[in-house]
Amino acid sequence: MNKTYLLLGSNIGNSQLQLSVAIKNIEQKIGTLIRQSKLYSTAAWGDTRQPDFLNQVILVETTLTPLETMQTILGIEKEMGRVRTLKNAPRIIDIDILFFNKVVLDEPTLSLPHPEIQNRRFVLIPLNELASNFHHPVLGLSVHELLEICPDRLTVKKF
């Protein structure tokens, strides 16, 4: 079984419900939910003139490959009503693959590990809750160490 850490986010509509629906879809189409972080309210990244996000990290076991997982995620987002417009725009649901085992991949549709993990507190804080000792396969630092040196100072608080 493959283990993948996924970041869920929403800032349109009932974000708590959207994350719950996303998890149900992930369990039906990707694999077994092993653990989930608490929910975190986070300031919007990039375009800050929008509502705060609700974010959560989950750990899922799957038999899918990284690319199959990404294609399935895109289908879930579309089914849930996500419309891709501008980068960093508000969204009903956003699902990102953070880590997939210790796979390092650079494809046109998927980069693993996610290239911005180390730069975003809204990723590292819930990820640290689940996997503080997991070592980034490229940077060689643990999630906890990445959080300690993260340059991002946006507000991230338990929901």
SSE order and pairing:
Elements lengths: L1 E9 L4 H15 L1 E6 L3 E3 L10 E10 L3 H14 L14 E7 L4 E3 L2 E3 L8 H11 L11 H7 L6 E3 L1
Antiparallel strand pairs: 1-4, 1-5, 2-4, 3-4, 3-8, 6-7
Overall form: globular
- CATH-derived topology: Alpha-Beta Plaits
Mean pLDDT: 95
Write the element-wise H/E pattern from the N-terminal end onward. EHEEEHEEEHHE
Helix-strand makeup class: alpha+beta
Poorly predicted runs of 5 or more residues:
none
Cα gyration radius (Å): 14 Å
Cα(first) to Cα(last) distance is 31 Å
CATH class: Alpha Beta
Name the CATH superfamily assignment: 7,8-Dihydro-6-hydroxymethylpterin-pyrophosphokinase HPPK
Count of the separate structural domains: 1
Spell out the key features of this protein.
159 residues, alpha+beta, Alpha-Beta Plaits, 6-stranded antiparallel beta sheet, two-stranded antiparallel ribbon, 30% helix, 28% strand
